[in-house]
């Protein structure tokens, strides 16, 4: 297969790194070569976060060149716009329908994007939206939001649900496992 | 069947150290190297591992273990290597007894650093051996080889990582027999001619180091870590480290000389490679370390206009190079949608115990020399409470130097507890000894925060989670001889203002310890919630000056010139600081 490039973006603390970990593990379990590269900034949370996963027969560069992401998975609406340049011309976009106001806006230092909705529609006409927070609440824990996103993301990858679930089982600790699997399934169902 | 695991290069170092029979590991945290020791700790049954107080001590502990005949590991970020160079520069002459492996993790592009350094320059300077892994599998294999090579040639062996390799996970075959390697500790034999390099013994060491370099150069020409991948001979590309992966992506058809072992430089191999291709192109990240050595061999190197010797390498930069050299590619045109997007910079957490100190220092109009930690964020609006940041521990010497130069006013140095233990203690000793009057403020949150909550001598625990003696910073300052040592609650704004004003204005040197836990580490992010009573809020803006991410602009008043405040209940962690700034009693605790 051709190498597939997935960029996952959002805000620190949203569980992006765990989601990308599980995607990478799934690809490895499927017998593919995989590279997962992440950049975390200098503070513990609140900043912009990006993780990139590439998988295929043989993967060289861990960095996805701009304009070549087959998939852009965004955990936050504003961040979806920030990373526009990563997306390939025919790339697909998955957007978690959630707003997190940057401190620069809430403190009044910079203006908010007034037409965010319209800009998202214009930039990503075919984007898939998911309300992961609400779906996570239905399985009993909003902290499983990232697994809901993983469930939706799974439908856009060449891997069976069983392989994804095996990766989750290998990565998530015992007492949280069932809830995470339920969240994953809720995300999967929501977009299928 | 060989076990396959997905590991970052940092994790691969730990797994390999275990397999290689390493028994001692010491490091100080620093992005991107921190996870190395955190993962070594998973093998604590066989590796005696620790957080050292700084990189120099970590290097000294590893050297001590090597002298004793054990296989020893130390790891650090590039700026940490600066701190550790002193013991290394002597031990490289003395020569390793047990294998000594040093991991230096650079940060090209400065994702999380104050500068960009190419550690390869220092490895060459130290006449040490240099392995250049391009992914986690190579990291795993090279760490094992490095221990063996270090013992065989009595040379400190470096593993050179970067943020990209350290934080990229790739598939690693760790072997079907993965487990702790059993290596007999080499005997330690007392030998002052070797271990006491006074000048008469040091001179022979110097000659031996030279012989060793030439022996290693011969090794470099034979090792399988250096390989020619024959291809189109119009260009022969010499590359190393993660840059090799970008070369394979962008120049897949050309001949490549991949250097996995790059110091001492394999001169004869490079000459052979150059003779077999039309033109030699050197592609490396950061300084032209290999290119200068290739040129010194009298080999002509392809000239181009691409500036590749600074910031992080990536495939797009090589595509631009290919376009210039061959004209057969287009760099993908990308559309940015970010015009006018508000930025999302890192901020001190809601409820961070550092915030009140900076709020107060801004109010007092102090000149503040800062340091390396989360608290560097105190420099930014709206706190604006820091003037300088140079390196770990520098704030104290910097503030004292300002005083000596004749700067007047309220001068103080601010650093965290871990940074104080790292290299602040000598700084305050110097202030006291030389008659300074500056105030040193220690933001004591009992954890090494920015690198992700590592234990330190103030936290009461070791790397492996064992109980440890707790060092009290106030007692340290008193023992050094400070008469003015004050502990203050970092969440009490009135006390902070009173204490800081008094100490900053005093004609004697002082140490203030502002104590309060790191709320993330202490799991206090949901400790409480505050609310603004909109009818009482006068839109005075006092609470906005805290720069708390939980305090948002609310209703506009006075024709939009001022705003009432509103607290995001999800982000608020209940620290109480904003309530203390409000003169109108508009903010109250609701949970």
Distinctive features:
heterodimer; A: 192 residues; Pyruvate-ferredoxin Oxidoreductase, domain 3; six-stranded mixed β-sheet; 41% helix; B: alpha/beta; Rossmann fold; 4 domains; seven-stranded mixed β-sheet; six-stranded parallel β-sheet; 19 helices; 23 strands
| Distinct helical segment count of chain B | 19
Estimate the mean pLDDT confidence of chain A: 94
Q: Please count the beta strands of chain A (DSSP E, at least 2 residues each).
A: 6
Task: Name the chain pair whose interface involves the most residues.
Answer: A-B, 54 and 56 residues
Ends distance of chain A: 24 Å
Structure overview:
- By secondary structure, chain A is an alpha/beta fold.
- Chain A has one domain (4-103, 114-191): 3-Layer(aba) Sandwich (Pyruvate-ferredoxin Oxidoreductase, domain 3).
- Helices cover 41% and strands 22% of the residues of chain A.
- Chain A has helices spanning 16-29, 77-82, 103-106, 116-123, 132-138, 145-154, 161-171, 174-191; strands at residues 4-11, 33-39, 48-56, 69-74, 87-96, 128-130.
- In chain A, strands 2-3-1-4-5-6 form a six-stranded mixed beta sheet.
- In chain A, strand 2 and strand 3 form a beta hairpin.
- In chain A, helix 1 packs across helix 7 and helix 6 (145-154) crosses helix 8.
- Chain A is globular and about 50 Å long.
- Chain A starts with a strand and ends with a helix.
- With 591 residues, chain B is of the alpha/beta class.
- Chain B has four domains: 4-222, Rossmann fold, CATH 3.40.50.970; 227-326, Rossmann fold (3-Layer(aba) Sandwich); 355-515, Thiamin diphosphate (ThDP)-binding fold, Pyr/PP domains (Rossmann fold), CATH 3.40.50.970; 530-589, Alpha-Beta Plaits.
- Helices cover 35% and strands 20% of the residues of chain B.
- Chain B is built from 19 helices and 23 strands.
- In chain B, the strands form six sheets. A seven-stranded mixed beta sheet of chain B has the order 3-2-4-5-7-6-12, sandwiched between helices. In chain B, strands 15-14-16-17-19-18 form a six-stranded parallel beta sheet, sandwiched between helices.
- In chain B, helix 1 crosses helix 6 and helix 3 packs parallel to helix 4 (78-94).
- Chains A and B meet through helix 1, strand 2, helix 2 and helix 3 of A and strand 8, helix 10, helix 13 and strand 21 of B.
- Strand 2 of chain A pairs antiparallel with strand 8 (168-173) of chain B.
